[in-house]
Amino acid sequence: MVSPYFLRILCSCLLLCALSLAAGPYAHGEEVTEEKLKALFVVNVLGYVEWPGRPKQATYGVCMAASEELSSEVRSYIQLKGLDARVRLRNLDGNRDLEGCDVLFVENHAVRGENFLLREAREKRVLSVGGGDRFIEKGGIIHVYLRDKKLAFDISTKAAEAGRIKIDSRLLSLAKKVY
């Protein structure tokens, strides 16, 4: 029998390898910034999330309530990986309509009305990902942040369940904290 500790280490290594391979051509001689790491995460997280009861989708909507710099990094990564046909990116700007959004990235310092957006996301079964203080406490599902110059994240399974969103156990095993 394989120990849970071994499985956690194995899953961590596999996801880190996947992110490293994805970042390799993306970073090509450039410094890997916080925005680039978050862009990698927000696009790659789609492979670890399901919306039970919804048909398998050919395309996903990623909505950004974030700085132009972060939105631009997400757009660049989508284009670099040739995902234009599968991932539609939309900046919310002043628009709070989450229609067509499967993932909402909220960058707390770039948006007003974060609590409203998170409540709407939960009601419309949208995966909320974001940064900032107390993101999980405000109802967000995945809180991403830098720790020692590395991307880390916490996951609220309670918020995911409330939004009827299923998060793959491999992703849960990599989270620093699971609530």
UniProtKB/TrEMBL annotation:
Pfam families linked: DUF4154
InterPro entries per record: YfiR/HmsC-like
Source organism of this protein record: Geobacter hydrogenophilus
UniProt KW keywords: Signal
Superkingdom of source: Bacteria
Protein name per its UniProtKB record: YfiR family protein
Residues making up the signal peptide according to the UniProt record: 1-22
